[in-house]
């Protein structure tokens, strides 16, 4: 794909594909936003695509745009000084990222990393519009507040998981969450990738996966895991 395409304004894509993307915008956000706001989004948004496992936002990036997810799922992680990572939560179609909103409002560097869990299509909105639309559209204000609320609950759930669940329970929750955002009970992931996401070792993950299989909660296959108890 020509890299220039990724930075074309969204309305150009609407002209080239008048049915698919207009319908997608209305499908994912039409029930949330009034028509006037949808029209503003279509005029100024930048359309982007990311393949699975590609980094969308990295640690210490300055964030100048607000993402609105059209398709796919994005994994939000924290990273320590040694480069070890921990998954905090996922955002899916119809969502935005509260951490991104905070960075835009405070004009600070990103404290999180965002990686495409699946192939992702999204729109990027200039951060200046966030404040303008808060006073102009009640639906945008409600959307932003609900996004903060949802992400806060997911963050608390992530903290609770670390504090109160044993590693086996955390692993099974991780697998279920991954299955839910990818909409399939077959997960294509290596033991090392799981270890990286959970901030643990591959040996620990392999041992716990075998225990979960014995408990008939999962099935282990070559290069994939089937989650049995969703």
Mean pLDDT: 85
Oligomeric state of this protein: single chain
Low-confidence stretches: 1-19
State the major sheet.
4 strands, antiparallel
Adjacency order of strands in the biggest sheet: 2-6-4-5
Total helical elements: 9
CATH homologous superfamily descriptor of the largest domain = Jelly Rolls
The helix fraction, in percent, is 40-55%
General shape: elongated
Q: What's the CATH architecture name of the largest domain?
A: Sandwich
Q: Count every beta strand, where a strand is a DSSP E run of 2 or more residues.
A: 10
H-E order: HHHEEEEEHEEHHHEHHEE
Number of domains: 2
Proportion of strand residues: 15-25%
> CATH first level of the largest domain: which class?
Mainly Beta
Protein structure class:
alpha+beta
**How far do the termini sit from each other?**
37 Å
Output the keywords:
single chain; 2 domains; disordered N terminus; 9 helices; 10 strands; 4-stranded antiparallel sheet; Jelly Rolls; 22% strand; alpha+beta; Arc Repressor Mutant, subunit A; 230 residues
In words, what does this structure look like?
The chain has helices at 10-16, 20-29, 35-44, 98-106, 128-136, 138-164, 167-182, 191-198, 202-214, and strands spanning 46-50, 55-57, 65-71, 73-79, 85-92, 113-116, 120-126, 186-187, 218-221, 224-227. With 230 residues, the protein is of the alpha+beta class. The protein has two domains: 3-162, Jelly Rolls; 165-227, Winged helix-like DNA-binding domain superfamily/Winged helix DNA-binding domain (Arc Repressor Mutant, subunit A). A four-stranded antiparallel sheet has the order 2-6-4-5. The chain has a three-stranded antiparallel sheet with strand order 1-7-3. The chain has a three-stranded antiparallel sheet with strand order 8-10-9. It is elongated.
């Amino acid at each position: 794909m020509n890299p220039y395409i990724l930075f074309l304004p969204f309305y150009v894509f609407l002209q080239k594909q008048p049915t698919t993307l207009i319908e997608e915008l209305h499908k994912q956000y039409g029930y949330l936003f009034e028509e006037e706001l949808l029209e503003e989004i279509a005029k100024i948004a930048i359309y982007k695509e990311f393949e699975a496992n590609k980094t969308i936002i990295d640690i210490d990036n300055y964030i100048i745009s607000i993402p609105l997810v059209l398709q796919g799922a994005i994994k939000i992680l924290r990273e320590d000084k040694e480069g070890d990572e921990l998954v905090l939560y996922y955002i899916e179609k119809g969502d935005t990222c509260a951490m991104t909103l905070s960075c835009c409002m405070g004009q600070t560097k990103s404290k999180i990393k965002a990686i495409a869990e699946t192939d992702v299509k999204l729109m990027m909105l200039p951060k200046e519009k966030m404040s303008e639309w808060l006073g102009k559209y009640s639906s945008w204000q409600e959307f932003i507040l609900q996004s903060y609320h949802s992400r806060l609950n997911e963050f608390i759930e992530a903290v609770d998981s670390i504090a109160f669940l044993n590693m086996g329970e955390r692993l099974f929750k991780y697998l279920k969450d991954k299955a839910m955002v990818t909409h399939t009970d077959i997960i294509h992931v290596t033991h090392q990738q799981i270890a990286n996401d959970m901030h643990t070792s591959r040996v620990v993950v392999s041992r716990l996966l075998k225990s979960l299989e014995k408990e008939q909660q999962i099935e282990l296959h070559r290069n994939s895991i089937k989650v049995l108890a969703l």
